[in-house]
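Researcher: Next entry: Iron-sulfur cluster assembly accessory protein (Mesobaculum littorinae).
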Amino acid sequence: MTLPPKVTDRAFARLAEIDAAGDGQALRVAVEGGGCSGFQYDIKLDAPADDDLVLEKDGQKVLVDSVSLPFLAGATIDFTEELIGARFVIDNPNAASSCGCGTSFAM
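Model: Predicted structure:
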């Protein structure tokens, strides 16, 4: 059985701020081929699909499609704010290495 990814309270709180307009979209976290390390994360606002795993708290949703789920097993989705900017980040125990920007990884 695959462990689902976890979403931090900080990430859900940021989603609540983003969804202030109430458009009902959710944060989609997907894995695609590409990037400088072989795989890359695609993080965007999107509508749910039938085969999505939906992680939800206080009405905020994070979506992971069935193809990306094995790549994100046991990962933690968080939100960080630093001097260089704010962004959603993924701590992925399945990644053997990652690039400096944190958006691509190798398995």
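Model: Note for the record: The longest strand covers residues 26-34.
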